[in-house]
Amino acid sequence: MVRMGLTAEKVTVVGAEVADDVGLHRVTMAQVARRLGVQDASLYAHVRSLEDLRGRIALLAADEKTLLIAEATAGLAGKDALVAFANAWREYAHKFPGRYAATQAPGRIDPELAAKAAGPRRAVALTYGMLRGYGLAEPDLTDAARLLRSTFHGFVALEASGGFAHARTPQASWIRSLDALHILLRHWPAPRDGGFA
User: Fold this and answer.
1) pLDDT the model gives residue 178
2) Which of 46, 23, 185, 55 is nearest to 120 (CA)?
């Protein structure tokens, strides 16, 4: 029998909370069921498997993260937009580590759910919109977006794992990294003849 009030959305939110508490890859259906006060079997009326739950967490997190970034960057352009974008990204990663991890390694997501999810599409639109403020067009938009993602994710992942043990604070390095990214984006290199495709 399905417990009254239990939905796929509620299971996903509780799964996300568990992921933030223990780490995405340590989430089990039993932990989620226990937190909801139901038997493990009750969850399978709403999510197909642990992999399905992780995919749902990834989509939830993509929605949340892009909303935070959209609010932070509204009405901004150039360096102001870049800094607000980056700070919102980092803030989300710090506040919701399990959900953030799901956005970086979403695994297999149900195609039907993915088709309905606005978060991933909005993330691309926000990123490309901010980069167009630097006068970039394809294929440079994609290259610059990959650079930003690599930089932001690399920084927050190293920060979370204690990888910055130097006396200089991570915050000081973060600020300087954003200064450097701004300069790089303003002076994006022209394509090389005969470069790799």
Assistant:
1) 98
2) 55
